[in-house]
User: What shape does this take?
Amino acid sequence: MDKDYKLFLTLARGEWCISGFRARDLRTRIAGLTPSRTSSLLKRLRNHGLIRKAARTCKY
Assistant: This one.
């Protein structure tokens, strides 16, 4: 399965709506995702306006 598709399926989970998610949460759910790849994916999603960072936290 494509990693971008897995990323969107993971982000579409309802559990993230209330508490948000961290980069570590994505790495635990998507196998083979390195920390550098995770940060670049999050940056790309932020630039496109699909996610936004919660103020004063490490969560999105």
About this structure: The first helix runs from residue 3 to 11. The helical segments are 3-11, 16-19, 23-29, 35-47. The two ends are 24 Å apart (CA to CA).
